[in-house]
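Recall that a protein's primary structure is simply its ordered list of amino acids. Everything else, from secondary elements to tertiary packing, is in principle encoded there. The following example makes that idea concrete.
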Amino acid sequence: MMIMNKSKIAYLVINLTVLLIAVSLFYFNYLKESYSFGVREILIIAIASVLVNVTKAFRLYFILLDSKFPSKLFIRQYCKTTLVSVLIPFKLGDIFRIYCYGYHLKSYSKSTVYIVLDRFFDTLALLVIVLVLLVTTHENFDLVVILLALFLGLITVVYILLPYVCSHLKHYYLTTKATPKTLSHLSLISKIEKVYVPVSNALRGKGVILCALSFVAWLLELGTVAILYGSTSSKFVDYLMAAFGMGESANYELFLLVTLTILLSVYAITQIAQTIRRHE
């Protein structure tokens, strides 16, 4: 009989609670609504949704590649955490992503860096696309541009300054009297460097690929919407505004509904298969 430790129990309880909240939001926000869309439209969106999520999943897996994260486990985690990220507002779903990946990586600092990197490249591609749309559609995306630029600027500043700050603090603590507090600070700096250095080295070879994957994902999604509704139509503009949290769009809700249904189905199937294999 398998005995679970406290961290495993906490992980299961947190996962179950968050998933119940997410599924409840899925039901009340989407499934209770009535939609009238054609089969062709739904089929095209379903294909686009699969391609978009495969691209985004590959981007995150590519970031995690050096950590040797098991591929089958990754598929379950991606579907589960993406589902939660979409449904739970204010980016609280990203905290859940960090927690889930950190649990399996046995390092929440690493998972934080990996998820922030994933968001960074996603936001970078989105910002470039928004700037292009700002010129071509003449819509008011100023607030979106500011928020995206602030996020990218903050991450960039932290990335550039962190090694200098760590180096300065390490020199300071090494030249002062050794105390338990000093040693704990040095230990923390060492942990930060252990995460920062390999990530920094990896980015030199992965950065272009991660950026390209981010552009592909966004262009697939927005390209599908443009093909279905026209790049200059009000439906396309409404979709963009809804995607940026600045309006409502039935077409955007349909894309989310199809995406969430696919993610939930894949997660349920892979989870059931994993449970069956465990009990064989």
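Residues 6-25+36-278 form one domain. The CA atoms of residues 100 and 106 lie 10 Å apart.
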